[in-house]
Every structure is written in structure tokens, then in C-alpha cells.
């Protein structure tokens, strides 16, 4: 059966210093699976990546992992994915992930997560896609980044319009349905007016 929606999640290959990050990843995966959705992600088994994938699978969702061969050789792949695409390059990986997604969401993470988030945001501002892009700012994790972006607007290197292209929230129960609804895929189960 076709999934209700397909959400690409970028997140840490580590779990961070606070169990709240792992709890968030679990909540996001459970939400995807329990709403008939599909997770698209980097195919790793470590950190928040593995947690979000396991929680999606455990709640009945599909998981598409897209991972470069070099990372599989390091035994970093999650072999329990519904579909695991092993690709040659990082560029191919990103394209396949983006093609399979209706919306993008970054959870807390490090440089890999940031790079992926900024890339889809940049593609959005240039019109390469029109899919919603979200940032889950759990417990202020991204406050310094958001403050920097505001400074960039202040200094004239960014515009309010660019900032308005991303949806930032600290509550997955509000941000997830918003992304799905903006992607135009809201089913009865995820209608914003019902939460
Ligand atoms: P980071 O935030 O630096 O931990 O990097 C996480 C992001 O980069 C993920 O969304 C993945 O796409 C990619 N990545 C980094 N490390 C791994 C790994 N061990 N296995 C699979 N993907 C990874």
C-alpha cells in the first residue's frame, strides 16, 4: 500500500548528551509509522538515525534508507530497513533521498545534519523543489544557529523571505502535521484542526 506521506529526516549519527534527543527521535519515528507514513533517511543504524528508523518500523511504517557503499563497508548501515538503497556517492544519496521525500525535517544533529538541512533549504529558495523544510528545535538546541541566521538577515546577507521558507518548532506533535499538511498530503489523521 502506498504510504500516506514520505518524510525525509536528517538527524545525528550520535545520540547527543541528553536522553531527550533519543526520546524525540523515537517520538518522530512513532508518529510517522502510526500515521501511515514512510521515513526516508540516511540508512544508518547509529545514533538518532537508528532510533528514528527503529521507531518507524516498530509502529508499522516503511523505512527507505539511502547509504553510500563506503558507509556500508564500515558496517554503519541499518539492515532492517524496508528498502536499503546502496549508492556510489554522497551526491547520488542526496538526490535519491530528496526525490523520495514529500517534506524534509532536521532533528538535532551535527555537521552532516546541518549540511543536509542547508542543502534542501537552499534548493527550495532556488526553486529546485517546493517541498516544506522543517527544523525541530528541541529544548533550544538550535537557538544559537537561529540567532546567527537572524544576524545574517540583519546584516543584509539573507532575507525574511528566505527565513520564511523554513518551519521551525519545538513540538513534534505540531511540526509533523504542519509539514505533512503543507506538503498537501494531510489525511484525516493528521489534519491540523484536529490536533
Ligand atoms: P551528523 O549530524 O554529523 O551525525 O551526520 C548525520 C547525517 O549525515 C545523517 O542524516 C546522514 O545522512 C549522514 N551520516 C553521518 N554519519 C552517518 C553514519 N554513521 N551512517 C549513515 N549516515 C551518516
What report would you give on this structure?
With 195 residues, the protein is α/β, with parallel strands linked by helices. Helix content is 45%, strand content 17%. The chain has 8 helices and 7 strands; from the N terminus they run E-H-E-H-E-H-E-H-E-H-E-H-H-E-H. Helix 1 runs parallel beside helix 2. The longest helix has 16 residues. The radius of gyration is 16 Å and the shape is globular. The mean pLDDT is 94. Bound molecules: adenosine monophosphate. The site of adenosine monophosphate has 19 residues, from helix 5.
Task: Please give a handful of descriptors for the protein shown.
globular, single chain, 8 helices, 45% helix, alpha/beta, 195 residues, Rossmann fold, binds adenosine monophosphate
Look up the CATH topology. Rossmann fold
Low-confidence stretches: none
Q: Quick check: average pLDDT?
A: 94
The strand order across the widest sheet is 4-3-2-1-5-6-7
Major beta sheet summary: 7 strands, parallel
In short:
The protein has 195 residues and is α/β, with parallel strands linked by helices.
Protein topology:
Elements: E1 6-10, H1 19-34, E2 38-41, H2 47-58, E3 62-68, H3 69-73, E4 83-87, H4 90-100, E5 103-106, H5 111-125, E6 133-136, H6 143-154, H7 160-164, E7 166-169, H8 172-182
Parallel strand pairs: 1-2, 1-5, 2-3, 3-4, 5-6, 6-7
